[in-house]
Design a protein that fits this description.
CATH architecture of the largest domain: 4-Layer Sandwich
Helix content: 25-40%
Number of domains: 2
Order of helices and strands: EEHHHHEHEHEEEEEHEHEEEE
CATH class of the largest domain: Alpha Beta
CATH superfamily of the largest domain: Endonuclease/exonuclease/phosphatase
Shape: elongated
Structural class: alpha+beta
Largest sheet: 6 strands, mixed
Length: 332
């Protein structure tokens, strides 16, 4: 109680206590809008290819959207809850390929009614500027794939080819072409090979194997990276035309700088008549928690996966190697 100058006593104000405005609501609303905008933007690439950049981060936008939606529903600690969910979500994305690689699933082998060759195949972007040639060589030997495509094999890594010849006597490279640092290593004979760099499509190397491997045609590919989505789309369209024209079964591997959610990968699958077998995040490797699936393996219909996808060790690269096993029919 308070007394006035004329000694009148004032009673304290009474009434219901004022409600405290929940903290973090506005921030969570803004975060939710950001996540939804990213998800919408990732789909707009179907209308305008420049928006396809957002598709590379579809998983991350999904985590952000879910985190802030749950944060809004919390009675207290809204922002803290959203932040923890985002951190755990990103850790989960990065841990997924490691967990999947610990015990890869084995599937039914060859297509019914046909003899097939079981092959372990792999692709590895070794990072052009990496100086860890010995580590790359050790990882190639540890993976021990029957066929492996190597990308960004800079000058300091060329000696690896001679060092692994006992394991991989059949090799194709494009070192004679400017801006082409791609290699195919094979345990099976290579009947013919070619490569290209400065054309409408992406740099590629191609090798056709003999009947021991079902006359399989193997491509190693490295597209331009986002945000150059227009040029990237033009590259994969031209590559798809080339692949579709070639007869026989194909194995296409490499760094496509695009995730399974992108219009880029959709174009490769649809225009080349290929089946994608990979979706594990493989980049970046630096924190040990890769976030984006940009290294892929595609096969022709009729080639089946016999073991699920795995990642290897980065060996100084910013990419993880990606590998799996396939069954290639030996009959025509």
């Amino acid at each position: 109680m308070t007394k006035t100058a004329d000694n009148t006593t004032l009673q304290p104000e009474t009434g219901p206590p004022r409600k405290r405005k929940p903290t973090g609501r506005l921030e969570c609303q803004l975060g939710l809008m950001l996540g939804l905008a990213g998800l919408i933007g990732s789909r707009l690439g179907q209308l305008w290819i420049a928006f396809d950049v957002f598709s590379q981060f579809t998983l991350q936008f999904g985590v952000i959207t879910l985190a802030f939606l749950i944060g809004l529903l919390m009675r207290r600690a809204k922002l803290l809850t959203a932040f923890l969910i985002i951190v755990l979500g990103l850790i989960g994305i990065g841990a997924w390929p490691h967990v999947a690689s610990q015990a890869p699933l084995t599937f039914a082998s060859a297509p019914a009614g046909a003899n097939a060759r079981d092959l372990k195949v792999a692709t590895f972007n070794t990072l052009y500027v990496s100086g860890q040639a010995d580590a790359v060589q050790a990882e190639i030997l540890r993976i021990d794939a029957d066929i492996i495509t190597l990308l960004e094999m800079g000058p300091n890594k060329r000696r690896i080819l001679e060092a692994v010849k006992d394991r991989y006597p059949h090799q194709a490279d494009c070192y004679g072409i400017d801006y082409c640092n791609l290699v195919i290593l094979s345990k099976f004979p290579i009947a013919e090979s070619d490569a290209a760099a400065l054309w409408d499509g992406p740099p590629y190397i191609r090798a056709r194997l003999g009947p021991e491997a079902g006359n399989l045609t193997v491509f190693g590919v490295h597209t331009i990276r986002f945000p150059h989505s227009r040029a990237q789309y033009r590259q994969v369209v031209e590559l798809s035309k080339l692949i579709e024209r070639l007869p026989g079964r194909k194995l296409v591997m490499g760094d496509f700088n695009a995730t399974p959610f992108s219009r880029i990968i959709e174009a490769v699958e649809n225009r080349s008549n290929l089946v994608r077998l990979t979706n594990l995040p493989s980049w970046p490797s630096h924190a040990g928690l890769p976030q984006i699936a940009i290294d892929h393996i595609f096969v022709s219909p009729g080639i089946k996966a016999t073991q699920s996808q795995q990642i290897g060790e980065p060996a100084g690269s910013d990419h993880y190697p990606v590998m799996l096993r396939i069954a290639v029919p030996l009959s025509p």
